[in-house]
Amino acid sequence: xxxxxxxxxxxKAPVKDVFENFNDPNKQREWVVQPYMLNDYKPPLQKGCxxxxxxxxxxxxxxxxxxxxxxxxxxxxVLKLKGSGTGLITINxxxxxxxxxxxxxxxxxxxxxxxxxxxxxxxxxxxxxxEADLNSFxxxxxx
Length: 143
Prior knowledge:
Layout: E1 2-11, H1 15-22, H2 25-28, E2 36-39, E3 50-57, E4 60-72, E5 76-82, E6 85-96, E7 99-110, H3 119-142
Antiparallel strand pairs: 1-7, 2-3, 3-4, 4-5, 5-6, 6-7
């Protein structure tokens, strides 16, 4: 089951600051809405870097392995993920009037227990989690 989606938000801060704050897995704990554990991350974040995140999605335990497949500071990062399916997360950062636009896109193929849900249920859950995280990130950066 393939699910795609995207979100855009404007953050009132320079693109370099937004990129650095968004892409530091250690800082993400301060703004990601759902609690999670970051495992085996060794800075700095760069192309080829891998790490594992465990937490919950749709109230069930999940584990995802992330790999940075493209790293172009301060404009773009692409993450490949595995666990309960596979996918790509592409995040673009662009200077716009009033700050930085963050364009967060995902393309995910789900497997395992997630396939017991409808595509619409999973899409809505991803949409809601991503929207909550981006709004929390905006508050984190803008103070």
